[in-house]
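Protein Record: Sequence and Backbone Structure Tokens
======================================================

Structure line: whole-number tokens from a learned vocabulary of local backbone shapes, matched to residues.

Purpose: to set a sequence beside its fold so the mapping can be learned.

___
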Amino acid sequence: MASMSNTIQFSLQRPHFSSPHKLASRSVTTLVPFKSLSVVSNSKSFDISPVGLSSKPLELFKCSQVLKPRNNVDVFITKAAAAADAEGHEIEITDGYAKPTKDFAEKFPALVTGFFFFTWYFLNVIFNILNKKVYNYFPYPYFVSVVHLLVGVTYCLVSWSVGLPKRAPIDKELLLLLTPVAFCHALGHVMSNVSFATVAVSFTHTIKALEPFFSASASQFVLGHQIPVSLWLSLAPVVIGVSMASLTELSFNWTGFISAMISNIAFTYRSIYSKKAMTGMDSTNIYAYISIIALFFCLPPAIFIEGPQLLQYGFKDAITKVGLYKFLSDLFWIGMFYHLYNQIATNTLERVAPLTHAVGNVLKRVFVIGFSIVVFGNKISTQTGIGTAIAIAGVAIYSLIKARIEEQKRKAAVAHAQ
């Protein structure tokens, strides 16, 4: 496309002045005709569009808003902006510099965030269903936990090798910070799987609804943070609901119950140590390093607790029941879905405010409980159903109150900084 002349002259029409005020001329290099400009100068924002189109370079533009009297307005149009307009995009000029308009993700952030939430829920539900199906013919949660992490670590190593994402360097100091996080992650993950293997998925998630209670307790009595009375009161229905559900749960056993409780404690301390390990590293790399370290923590119990049984009859029984191909493919896919749903969850929660984060976590648990009951046909008593509903409602109330408190703290900090 032919380029414009080296000098462009603008004219702004002002109703309050008898003659046009000319803008200062600036040299422009390798420019192409463009459709429209959106100019932001100080606090004023206005559009400039061609008065007429011809084969000659554009010389006259009109302004849609009245400007404050000013002698000169300098506008610089960069080559990048010109190239973007050559492809049919509009150009925005902000503080004297031209740039292309926003992309799809910036124009429709709610739509993109909604897609992230949908993907997170979908992967989580598929993981929970497939994971439970594997336990029905291969009840070795310590080994399965290793498989989850091993597949995820392999995925991370392959991604690093192709530069998607680029591996962030790690030093001794960061390794020491991430090790406690990884240990709590490994413990919580293994105990969750022990619970999934022994009781219904819906019951495990009902027990895990108590995690906010353990989090509040740790904040109050370990970290010394003062928890408002309103938060403690919102936790009462959570405790009552879980107690009701546990008393009449048809799949109840102490191993599943205690394992889920240990998982709650482990994930609570994971959150505490994670705050101490906050770094400038992106979440994808952080989660990759945590997975690698956690894998080393999960290997010893899998070898010593389940190793002899697996070698003697565990693998043989599973292959006899479903065949070698299905057995291996099931192990691979549960590991892949586990890693992907955790990674997408991390990326999703980075995009949203605390309130949206809280609501998203509660809805996720509702989705998983509901789908697991439908898929596996788990029979639950009326009291268990009511207790589960009360517990989830309590978690929702707690999450909303906590999110509002965090938002108030953030706004107060911003106001104080100003």
About this structure: Confidence is low (pLDDT under 50) at residues 1-88. The longest strand covers residues 44-50. The CA atoms of residues 89 and 100 lie 7 Å apart.
